[in-house]
Design brief:
Elements lengths: L2 H52 L8 H5 L7 E5 L4 E5 L21 E4 L5 E9 L2 E8 L7 H10 L5 H5 L11 E6 L4 E5 L16 E8 L2 E11 L5 E10 L1 H36 L18 E4 L4 E2 L4 E2 L3 H14 L4 E5 L11 H5 L8 H15 L2 H7 E8 L2 E8 L7 E4 L2 E8 L2 E5 L1 H12 L16
Parallel strand pairs: 11-14
Antiparallel strand pairs: 1-2, 1-10, 3-4, 4-5, 5-6, 6-7, 8-9, 9-10, 12-13, 14-16, 15-16, 17-18, 18-19
Length: about 450
């Protein structure tokens, strides 16, 4: 697979992963919004219907409300001062600790008027670890109520555990009841036994609360204020809905999207890791150089422009350096060019080259400027900046130049005396390719021929 094609695949994978991540986040947000909106709409409708049935004006008048039989499946109505008005399918989070606004006399019916204007006949039965309270509104007290209180109380058993297991259908219809443990915590309640809880926090506007886990299930809560004609809050309707299944589906959808997103990002990272591994410059330390041999990724040059045979400056030698760099750039792996080292691995250093630098400083900086000038004129400024990194180090007391060359993602032509030539590192030598060889190599190496290196260039002044 060519490097440019790998880069293209990596970019495509990145864009796809990015788009999928955005789509997954959008889908999750939309699904959550839709579920919340549907839940809020359903609960709002139930809460408003309950509020309308209560029909508070200047006082609580609950007679008509008590005759209404269609209310929400799970709800609680409380007055502003904490008096329980009504509840069904009790959840322990509806209210917790309560006090009794009436004196307790066990197993003896008594009359009580609540502070919301309702008259009750109540009966308190003691359990081993708590109590149950049975009650009937004055308008619905059945005949023989005393005997009915006794028989219904007996159905709750002797303990709180027995009482909370008692099904509602086991208790006669006229009676509301509450099960309260010895710590004053309501364990179950249905109807409007006039218990006293902490005053509820009443919001200014109808409000959908965040979902809440309760005993292994998840519930949504909608709060509907009960207001007087003067718009003052006098009570609160809390309607609940079991949304466990909705939340489960939401979590499953989110888990699937997260799994796919993570997989896509892993693929993307793998593409880019492989790509970066291919394009990074080789890293060879100075201490390794004496043990290296010339090969596919390593080449030694005695100098930049000092001719050790002629013992004089020979600027034609610069072409060999440029060819080596271009050959590494066009190769699959890149490579390292060491200047100041003979083919026999003798450390020659750069002092002779420094002395030849007439137009620049005769030192390391001047050498680097000259090297960059040569490569820019023969290969190009942009390509050199991206793929060529010269470094200097000292070996056996002599300075050498180590040029790390990364493989290019496009064909690199070497411009020399008006001709453009593609050089490629093959084995331990740098070879010029003919036009057909260059086309075939470009097709295999980069995924298709590129004409950049075929364009005629003006002769470079070397």
């Amino acid at each position: 697979m060519s490097k440019s094609f790998s880069s293209l695949l990596g970019t495509a994978a990145f864009l796809f992963a990015l788009l999928f991540t955005a789509a997954a986040v959008g889908q999750y947000c939309f699904l959550q919004w839709k579920l919340n909106n549907e839940t809020q709409s359903d609960l709002r409708e139930l809460a408003e219907e309950t509020r309308d049935q209560i029909a508070f004006s200047d006082t609580w008048n609950l007679l008509g409300y008590r005759r209404w039989t269609e209310g929400p499946a799970m709800y609680v109505v409380m007055a502003q001062n904490g008096t329980l008005i009504d509840t069904h399918d009790y959840l322990q989070s509806m209210f917790s600790h309560v006090s009794l606004p009436f004196p307790v006399e066990y197993d003896h019916p008594f009359e009580f008027s609540s502070d919301v204007g309702e008259d009750w006949t109540l009966y308190v039965h003691k359990l081993r670890d708590g109590m149950i309270i049975l009650g009937a509104h004055k308008e619905t007290v059945p005949e023989g109520v005393n005997a009915l209180f006794v028989s219904n109380a007996a159905r709750f058993g002797a303990s709180i555990a027995d009482a909370v297991r008692t099904p509602e259908r086991a208790i006669d219809e006229p009676f509301d009841y509450a099960v309260i443990d010895q710590d004053g915590i309501v364990r179950f309640a249905t109807g409007g036994i006039p218990l006293k809880a902490s005053p509820p926090t009443i919001p200014a506007n109808p409000t959908l609360l965040p979902v809440t886990p309760i005993k292994g299930k998840i519930y949504a809560t909608f709060l509907e204020p009960v207001v007087s004609k003067s718009h003052g809050a006098v009570g609160l309707i809390s309607v609940f809905e079991d949304v466990t299944e909705n939340q489960r589906l939401l979590r499953q959808s989110n888990s699937f999207n997260v799994m796919v997103t993570v997989l896509l990002w892993l693929v993307t990272v793998a593409f880019y890791a492989a790509y970066l591994k291919r394009v990074r410059r080789s890293s060879i330390s100075c201490a390794q150089i004496p043990f290296l041999h010339e090969g596919e990724t390593v080449e030694f040059k005695s100098s930049l422009q000092w001719d050790y045979e002629l013992r004089q400056t020979n600027k034609d030698l610069r072409l060999a350096v440029a060819k080596a760099v271009a050959g590494f750039m066009n190769s699959e792996k890149g490579g390292t060019l060491v200047i100041g080292m003979s083919d026999a691995r003798e450390v020659l250093g750069l002092e002779k080259d420094y002395a030849t630098l007439d137009s620049v400083k005769p030192d390391r900086d001047g050498f680097e400027q000259a090297l960059h000038g040569i490569l820019i004129k023969t290969i190009g400024k942009s390509l050199c900046a991206r793929y060529v990194k010269p470094n200097f180090c000292s070996l056996q007391g002599k300075e050498i130049c180590v040029i790390a060359v990364a493989p290019s993602n496009e064909p690199v032509s070497l411009e020399w005396q008006g001709a453009s030539t593609l050089y490629v590192r093959v084995g331990n030598s740098t070879r010029p390719f003919s036009l057909q060889e260059a086309l075939d190599y470009a097709r295999d190496r980069w995924g298709g021929p590129t004409l950049r290196w075929l364009r005629a260039r003006r002769p470079a002044a070397i």
